[in-house]
User: Fold these one by one.
Assistant:
Number 1:
Amino acid sequence: MKKYFFAVALVFAFRAEFIEASEVQVSGVRYETMFDYNTKTFEQVGSIKIRYINHDLSWGTRVFLLWGERCNGISHDWSNWKEELRPVDSYTWEITIHPGSAIVDHDGRNRCSNLEFAFMNSLNNNVSWDNGGASSMGFYSVPMPTEKTLGKVSDPSSWEVLPVSRKSSGYDY
């Protein structure tokens, strides 16, 4: 009986480590804008839609996004914080953001490679964080939209699904 209990407890403990309370879905589009009069070219910028699903959050929870960009290999500009996601379905929130930096500059060089973010959940003055769970300093990361999605923001068919990864620190690339 002890062996059976130990085996069940071990399996349950192992499974619990991999159960995640939240799901993050991200899509994005890249488009040309910001005409540079000196070079007579456009820089490419983008829009990114983040959908956050968390069945562990109570009704009435407010969800905020804290985000920054990884440009030229350096994380920066996490000052764009406390942007509130809007509820779109049960346990589901969504936001569309427009990173402030050019993804590709007028010389055709990639400037910003990734969007990094975490969620702050607030209910009745109680705050919890969802940073991807990779470490206490972790965050979610998605690559910026690629050139193949050069399209229009208003055309959902031109948006690409972006893979979400969980990072333990800024050195985890």
Number 2:
Amino acid sequence: MSKYALTAVAAKRRGIAAKATLALEFRVKVSSLPVQKVAEIHFPVTNSGVMETEAAGVATLAETPADLQCFVRGQLESLVNTVVVLNVVDADNGNTTATATFAPPSWVNDQSKDFPEGYAVDFVTNNGKKVKSITGFASVTGGDTGSKLAIAMLPDLESFRVVGSCTERDFTTKARSSEHIPGEEDGSKHVKRGRSEPGELTVSQKYVSYADGLGRIAGRSVTAMLEVEKEGKVTTERLVFGNWVPTTKPSAGDGNDHATKQAAGKYELFLAFFAS
């Protein structure tokens, strides 16, 4: 099992999905497997994509067929839902198609078709099989000029293990930062989209043993995932931090202070999946 899309929110649960989130509704999971990028898609004009593949990802996919995911790099702007259909070869060497559709969740107020860095969806093959290789585009709908997407292989969901008793979950996305250019007396006459800040993730948990939880991933490259389950009834999102390398810092404090462990570090790729 490795498709990341969440079950659609039932009509009777949309009110729950739309409520503010408590910290305790975040669940932390970690996988020892990496996120590997396979290709990027650039939109030189609307309704048209140009694909650039990455050799390492293509070779890994050929050896280990997988379900693919598609996510925004920088920004995706469109007047309609952006739909990318690929011609692919499946795990049994059959020719089929794989489709990724970018649409807003039914339970959010913003129903525009524009999405930020990291917004992600699954590619769904026509026959339900995993993908071995990509042979080209079948069609592209939407996606304004300058938009950019990427295709990646993610760890199988069954490879993730829960990190319990977490007390802190802080992160930055890899959205591009604003840069100002002064002019005359105006300190920010021009404001442009610059380079993103490094993606960072910090997670803390109660200290049980350094032999478990965050202590086991110190200095390693892993994939972390935050899941939000509201009121124990509906899971609304999965936030994936690919190729995270954390440094772990235990803290024992004094007297009756609670001992904790904190894992903090940079990551490479951010993907955010949402229930429809």
Number 3:
Amino acid sequence: MGRGGADRLGEANMTDHQLFCQDVLRYGTGLTLVRHGGGSNCPCAEKTGVYSPEWHRNHPVDTDCEGVGRTGTVVSELSIKAFVFNYTMVKTFVQFQVVGNVTARDMMIIGTVNEEDGTFLDLNTLDLLNDYFVYNGCRYRLKQSEILSSDEKVAQFAILRQIQGQE
């Protein structure tokens, strides 16, 4: 019998990628991916290109970019599933070359699947400055990711850097 017994008999002809996506949907944890498209730079980001909380403190009545450094953007939310771990707890088990420092607040996710249609979500398509994940009420940005593949792209490992406390 296939992995998991009789309920998985039809999976004999499925690829590793299809099996992994199915398992992520079944057993993974829900996250929300918040994507920002279009718009223009907020005045807070004119000099550095990134959001400046100090600029907003000094200009409280001006445009509020909601922490993304852009105004007039179209915001969309996507429900995804992944296996989620605190990186410092699993770092000794995972052969993943991390660039820079990782803190105890940072997370590692394995696999990213669109909860609505079951398709793989390639994190390389994200806007690294503006898109973020919400998990357990906290915001995280993609720090780095790496594709896991056999004969095809199966999944990806990613480190998420916490950018804000509880929402």
